[in-house]
Amino acid sequence: MIRSRMATFGVLALLLAACGGNGAATQQKKTELTLYNDKGAWTKFFDEMGALSKQRIGLGMKPTGYTDSAQYQAFIKASFRTDVKPDLFTWQTGGMLEEIVKQRQVAETTAVWQEAIKAGDLSPDLMPYYTIGGKQYCVPMNVAYWGMFYNKKIFDEHGLRPPATWEDLVKAAATLKKAGVTPFYHTSVLFSFVWFEQLMAGMDPDLYDRLATGKAKYTDPGVVQVMEKWKELIDAGYFMNPGDKTDPGDVMKTGKAAMVSFGTWFNTSMTQRDLKAGSDYGFFVIPNVNPALPKTSVIFESGPLCSLAKAADPEASAKYLKWWTTAEAQEKWATTRGDVSANPKVTIADEALGQITKDAGSGRYRLVNRYFEATPPPILTAALDGFGTFVTEPGTYKEVLETIQKEADEYWSTHQ
Amino acid sequence: MTRAPMLGRFRYGYVAPAALLVAVLLYAPFLWTAYLSLTRYDGLSEPEWTGLANFAHLLDDPALLTSTRNTLLWVAGTMLLPVGLGLLVAVLSYDLRGGGWYRVPFMLPYALSGAGLAMVWSPVLSHDGVANTLLGVDTAFLQEAPVNTLAMLLVWTWQQLGVNTLLFVVGLQSIPKEPIEAARLDGASGWRLFRHVIWPLMRPLTAVVVGLALVASLKTFDIVWVMTQGGPGRNSETLAVTMYKETFVASDYGYGSAVAVLLTVVTGLASYLYLRRQVR
Fold it and tell me: What predicted TM-score, i.e. pTM, was given to this entire model?
């Protein structure tokens, strides 16, 4: 009996030893870092950055790109509890960053920010998006201004020009609709919030900010008016079917819809499809619905590149983040993708994108934080589902707002 | 009978590796999920004990009502279409000369995975897809409830019909010929022969086919996730999709776990009640 039990314990001990692995992790010196991201379509561009960094600072970088953001976020969160940790990873500013910083998972980057601002590589305007409890975390992986991409050939064909006022935009939509062209792209999945934030920002940006901080309700008259305006546009037949799963890049290329509202990063999709700015497509800032507002509202987002507090080689990760902010790295990162950059020294090749970056920097616009970052995650989840329902059944807008507000009430009751 | 001495001494040792694997990979995750269902947990901070609060929330969550309704639709639809039609195809074809060739086309879609199946059918059922063009209609197959669930059920039928047919054919071929011949001599044929002789003889196999289909339909996930992600809004969610969305999209691991426990209990209970009735 005793021998039998000893044999059992022996087997268990061997198995546990095999499962346990290297318990006391020793710090390594890395020459190549892993960069986990939810931008699977950008792998080629990350690879190019990895080759450049290896050449310049002796640190290579290998990207692992996810295409499903829910899976990606679950992996990153799980990695905090395991030994499979990314050296670098992309995330979101706002509530999502705050959440993981509060868990002490993210490496502080205050020193990187101070040096970069001193060297003119980062603008202090960006700092608030990366500041939690007076300290900075992560660096900008990208920045983006939101506006309208339009199919230039379709516009030329119908004698249209980028609109200067909201009325002009609606007139352009009416002209296109009359000619049998669908004016605007629309979706019920993930980016279902785009027109909500755009109309909110163009009608009442103060209300939008109050909504983001729980000081206003989704059922307030101002928000209801926004939904009614959105419904009006849907009812007029200005949007393509929200269930259409055509990639928005292809929607632009094929002219399935004449206009697609996205961040400047959408230019990468244009680059990938060999479309030329100025001849194939153009970009304009969407005019405010309310002309009385002092400044045109422009949706702004900045996506962070982070490293973990418990990274395998914290020094190497910090070194990489520091290099990422430099003009040399940003020049490459922006030009290969045809995008704007967080580094003010970088020259933007695309004329329209260069102009919006310059105008935004000079204070011409009121920058409004993108809904995705501005809204706390539980409310965001309910809102994305709600807007998905609304774009399919526009008559449900009041119920949708009530459902989102129910989630908001629950959240703000414990987070004010 | 005497026990082999070596086996007696080391019997726990032999069983231990397999038992450990089962414990670590099956029991432990289940117990952990059951524990999480009694907590508030965002996947980052420590789980906070909330007792039965998540289960109470199940009762007043309109999204759960929708996903329960859709799941029941999947169960009923699966019994009617892949299983019912499978039986019909099997009965009509098994006696035919060259019946095997007739059944081959039904089998081919079974080679596709659930995700692959959904990827292939999504564009077909989209707004400007082949289905609308061929039928000359303008139906939002994947958008309006319950049309979207019914459309996905048809896709599911397209894939599952073949394997159910095959199982029923095997059942038909394995039943003894004598009682059928005797019944025929007594003048039974057609529906009466099937209803009173063939159907009772096939009962053990039908129990397996229906049991498997019951479990598969209760945990429907991949086809819905790929084709509609449970939307628009939440109108095509099944219990399994709600479980995934609450856990990994909304990061509400506690509530997601409560849905997982509910789904486990429903599946276990349905299987138990069904099999207890069938295997008597």
Answer: 0.83
